[in-house]
Amino acid sequence: MSAAESQYFALLRAALWETPVAVDGPVDWKTVFQIAMFHGNAALLADLAARKEEDAPSPKLFAKMQNVMRENLIHQMRLKQILVSAVKLLREHDIEPVLLKGFGLAMLYPNPSLRQFGDIDLFVGTSDFHEACTLLRTLPGGYNWGEEVEIGRHYNIEFGQYPMEVHRVSADVEDAKEQRLYVAMEQDGLVDHSQRIDLEGFEVTIPSKEFAVFFTFYHAWHHFLETGVGWRQLSDVALALHSYQGQLDLDKLKTWINAMRLMQPWQTFGYLMVDRLGLPEAELPFYSPKCSRRAKRLYCQIMKEGNFKRANHFKRKKPKSRLWHKVHASFSIFVDFFHRVGVFPSHAFREMGRSIKAAFGKNFQKK
Question: What does the alpha-carbon distance between residue 214 and residue 333 come to, in Å, rounded to a whole number?
Fold first, then answer.
C-alpha cells in the first residue's frame, strides 16, 4: 500500500465513522482526491478537507472539492424531487414501489448528502411493471425526456440528466436454479418484510434489513465482475452491517449467501471492509481471517480498476471505430478474466462464459 493509499483510507475511515483523523505526515491531497474520484466517495473526503484546519489542500484543489460537493447536493435534491413525484403517482394507482440502494443507503451515512449516486432504482415487481412504466411516462413537471428503453430486468427513463430505473426484478441471475432461489429471496425481502423509512419528511418503502445487506453486497459483487467496484459500494455494505448490527436474521442471511454460492467472496470482501474501512470485526457476519492472502489480491484489483473501472486506463480509452470497439470489447473479456481468476477462479470462469455468451451468442444461433 502506498503512502497516499494509506492516507486515503485513514481519511475515509474518519469520514465513515466520525472519528478523529489519524494520518501520518502531510496529506498528499491531489493523489488522495484522485483515488476518491475513482472510487465514488469524493464528496465524503471533500467535506473532511473543508473541516480540516491544518494541512489543508491547495486553494485550487479545495475549490474543485467544493464543486464536487455542490454538484452532488444539487443532484441529490433533483433526484429526490423526481422520486417523491414518482412514488406519489404510483401510490395513487395502488402500486407500492420499493426503493433500492440510493437514498435508502444514503440515510445510513453520518451525512446522507455526501453519499454519491447517479440514479433512482424502483422495484415494482413483474405484475405491476408495465402499468408502472406507463404511469411514470405521464409524470408532469416539464421534464426533459430522453431515452425510454426497456432492457432486461428494468426500464430506463431519463429525466434530462437524471435517470430512473424501474425494475421488474432487482437483479439478473443467469443460473436457472439460482434464479428460482433469488425470486423467493425477493418475495421475502422486497414484499413480505419490506420496511418504511422517513426520507426527510416523505415516507418510502425500502427492502428488509437482511435483503438490504445482501442486495447491496450482491450489487457490489456484480460491479466487481462486470464494471469495476469502488470503495463506495463496499462502504455501503459496511455501513448497512453497522447500522443493522444485532437486528439481522443471520441464519437467513447465511442461507441466501450460500444459495448464490457467494460465501468465499463475502468473506474476502468482508476482510477488506474490516481491514481497510474499519468495520468492527464483530459486526461482520461469518468473518474469516483465512481470507487474508486472497483479500490482498482483491485489494490490488479494486485499486487498479475503481468504480466503473475509472482507474483503469485501458477501459477509459474509447475506440474510435465500430470495428475497434468490437475488438476492444472482445479483448476486455479476456483481460477481465485474467484479473479475476487470480482472486476467485471458479467465479471468473463462470463470468467469462456468461460474457462470451452475451457478446457472441447470436453468432452461434441456428438460422
Answer: 27
- The dihedral built from the CA positions of residue 288, 290, 294 and 296, taken in this order, carries a sign that is positive
Q: How far is CA 354 from CA 172, 179, 274, in A?
A: 12, 15, 31
How many residues comprise the chain? 367
166, three cell numbers: 424501474
Show the cell assigned to 173. 441471475
Contacts of 75 (CB under 8 A, 6+ apart): 118, 162
pTM comes to 0.88
Q: What is the pLDDT along the chain (367 residues), one digit of tens a residue?
A: 899 999 999 999 999 999 988 887 889 999 999 999 999 999 999 999 988 778 889 999 999 999 999 999 999 999 999 999 999 999 999 999 999 999 999 999 999 999 998 899 999 999 999 999 888 888 865 454 445 556 667 888 888 788 889 999 999 888 889 999 999 999 999 999 999 999 889 999 999 999 999 999 999 999 998 888 999 999 999 999 999 999 999 999 999 999 999 999 999 999 999 999 999 999 999 999 999 999 999 999 999 988 866 666 545 555 556 665 555 555 566 666 667 777 888 777 777 666 666 555 544 444 4
Question: Which grid cell sits at 117?
Answer: 449516486
Q: List, in order, residues 6 or more apart from 147 with CB less than 8 Å away.
A: 156, 158
Any residues with CB less than 8 A from the CB of 244 and at least 6 apart, and which? Answer: 209, 212, 213
